[in-house]
Amino acid sequence: MNDRLNGILGMARRAGRLIAGFDATVDAVKAGRAQLVLLAADLSPKTEKELRFAAEDAVPLLSVGLTKEEIGHAAGFGKPVGVVTTEDKGFAAAIIKAADCRNKEDAV
């Protein structure tokens, strides 16, 4: 799973359809651009709670089991990243599938 997920994150970044960071994610959610929010496994509970509040069930949130270091490396950011968001429905679907979720309801 990790290799496939890493590949998808890298492609989304190169395509310019991946946003990193808490503030950028909240802005994308509020603007209606966010399709899926990925949470690192080692994200603080407070940050996760704030993101869940900001998303208001409008956008699925998915913890993919990767650490901040792993997400940052896979997406090519060169630094740890605890939250990434995709603005593309196709990438969102591919990430959910790679994470073995059957549908968006599983990604909450």
Architecture overview:
By secondary structure, the chain is an alpha+beta fold. Helix 1 crosses helix 4 and helix 2 runs parallel beside helix 3.
List keywords for this structure.
single chain; 108 residues; alpha+beta; four-stranded mixed beta sheet; 5 helices; 48% helix; 13% strand; globular; disordered C terminus
Largest sheet data: 4 strands, mixed
Helical segment count: 5
Q: How far is the N terminus from the C terminus?
A: 19 Å
The beta-strand count equals 4
Mean pLDDT: 88
Overall helicity: 40-55%
The H-and-E topology, N to C, reads as HEHEHEHEH
Give the strand line-up of the largest sheet: 1-4-2-3
Q: Which oligomerization state do the chains in this entry correspond to?
A: single chain
Q: Could you name the ranges where pLDDT drops below 50 across 5 or more consecutive residues?
A: 101-108
Calculate Rg over CA atoms. Answer: 12 Å
Shape: globular
Secondary-structure class: alpha+beta
Beta-strand content estimate: 5-15%
What's the SSE blueprint?
Elements lengths: L1 H13 L3 E3 L1 H10 L4 E4 L5 H11 L5 E3 L4 H8 L7 E4 L2 H10 L10
Parallel strand pairs: 2-3
Antiparallel strand pairs: 1-4, 2-4
Helix pairs in contact: 1-4, 1-5, 2-3
